[in-house]
Amino acid sequence: MKAEKNKYSLWFLAWPIFVELLLQLLLGAVDTLMVSRVSDDAVAVVGLANQIFQAVMILFMTVASGAGILIAQKIGAKQQESARTVGIMAVTISGLIGAILSVILYVEAVPLARLFQLEERLIPLAHTYISIVGSGMVLTALTATLSTAIRNTGNTKGPMIIAIGMNVIHVMLNYAWINGAFGFPQLGLTGVAISTLLSRLLATCLLLYMFVSVFERRIRWRDLGVFNRKLFSEIIRIGWPLGVNMSSWVLSQLAIYSFLATMGAAALAARTYMNTLESICFMLGYSIALSAQIQIAHLFGSGQTQAAYKAGYRGTWIGLGLVMCNSILLLIIGKSFLGFFSSDKAIIELALSCLVLTAVLQPGRMVNMGFGNALNAIGDTRFNMVISLFSMWGVAAGLSYVLGLHYGLGLTGIYIAMMCDEYLRGILVAIRWRRKKYLRSAEGRTNSIDPLGATEGKVRNVHSA
């Protein structure tokens, strides 16, 4: 019992997640840094392409996110067979969706780039990057789903170790293909895209190897066809509001990127560089929020609602303290950091003009992420969906257009709009968590029959608030 408790302690979960996310961030930062050696135009293309990839990822992340929360809840409720089945279904369904998206992105790379008003001179670069990286979307689907499933069993170290190997391979291949080193041809942006594809392939293979042994009963090849309708409906019940929430964020960000595209390649490049800087600042807080979500889901599944409630506050306040310290650090190192990426004074000055706003934005984002993830962990996903639809489009995207384009504030106006969005949603989710509406509906414990036909423990009968 003590070992189980330690396995789901906040710091035990958080530090491997932090290392994994940091290494994933370094993957993106290395991409950005190395692509900047090709050209700032290439950076603008990669920035827009990554927004497109995030948009299509929603289709399988809906399944992966819902399954991850449900796995932690089922393990907390001692329903190991249900957790295993949920994991298997998530991987097979996400892999199928990813394969379909791979074909679409490969075939429709140019129309997608033009859809978001990319300058015509950048279209050839966009076609190269989107078609190559996009064709591997099935690998992205599998790595994301496998990592989520493995982490929510309490094993956060495994994905971290694989992320280390993925980053090492990616950096080496990037260097080789951009510079023509080690006998490799000099391929520029094409080489970066191929490097991304190969490193994800390696990560997928290693995660699959780990996944088959992560539950109490080993997964066999014949199990990959398993499907349980009742468990799948539980995944969708939790996951579809998460999918709408994620799609709302990504599509609103794409709308904002389309506004930036009309301002020129310099604005796109500046936003891409700042996004990397923001991610470094927020990474530790984000890892705390993710680990707190796993911990809260496990406590909630085991019927410990008061402990789950307190864990929501503990995770958010710890993350907030860390993010505020990092925001101060961001102000100190921001100018030097941007100098590593670009020598274009106009782009650097444009990015630096938003540095203070970026630092002020981060605490609001942490409160939003901390309490928002806590609500997701107990299945209260619809509330997040509703406020996201209103705030991300009405405030983030709508105000970005008004301030950035209509009033001509450019990138500064867009950052003001994003700051208003994060703080508004942060306040709303904090109030929702404090009122404990969803938790109260679960405090009357009832016996629950496992969807596979075996009683594996008592769980709470939870209904939508």
From TrEMBL:
<feature type="transmembrane region" description="Helical">
    <location>
        <begin position="280"/>
        <end position="300"/>
    </location>
</feature>
<feature type="transmembrane region" description="Helical">
    <location>
        <begin position="409"/>
        <end position="431"/>
    </location>
</feature>
<feature type="transmembrane region" description="Helical">
    <location>
        <begin position="254"/>
        <end position="274"/>
    </location>
</feature>
<keyword id="KW-0813">Transport</keyword>
<feature type="transmembrane region" description="Helical">
    <location>
        <begin position="52"/>
        <end position="73"/>
    </location>
</feature>
<feature type="transmembrane region" description="Helical">
    <location>
        <begin position="126"/>
        <end position="146"/>
    </location>
</feature>
<feature type="transmembrane region" description="Helical">
    <location>
        <begin position="158"/>
        <end position="178"/>
    </location>
</feature>
<feature type="transmembrane region" description="Helical">
    <location>
        <begin position="312"/>
        <end position="334"/>
    </location>
</feature>
<dbReference type="InterPro" id="IPR047135">
    <property type="entry name" value="YsiQ"/>
</dbReference>
<keyword id="KW-1003">Cell membrane</keyword>
<keyword id="KW-1133">Transmembrane helix</keyword>
<feature type="transmembrane region" description="Helical">
    <location>
        <begin position="190"/>
        <end position="212"/>
    </location>
</feature>
<dbReference type="Pfam" id="PF01554">
    <property type="entry name" value="MatE"/>
</dbReference>
<protein>
    <submittedName>
        <fullName>FMN/FAD exporter YeeO</fullName>
    </submittedName>
</protein>
<dbReference type="InterPro" id="IPR002528">
    <property type="entry name" value="MATE_fam"/>
</dbReference>
<feature type="transmembrane region" description="Helical">
    <location>
        <begin position="383"/>
        <end position="403"/>
    </location>
</feature>
<dbReference type="InterPro" id="IPR048279">
    <property type="entry name" value="MdtK-like"/>
</dbReference>
<keyword id="KW-0472">Membrane</keyword>
<keyword id="KW-0812">Transmembrane</keyword>
<feature type="transmembrane region" description="Helical">
    <location>
        <begin position="85"/>
        <end position="106"/>
    </location>
</feature>
<feature type="transmembrane region" description="Helical">
    <location>
        <begin position="346"/>
        <end position="362"/>
    </location>
</feature>
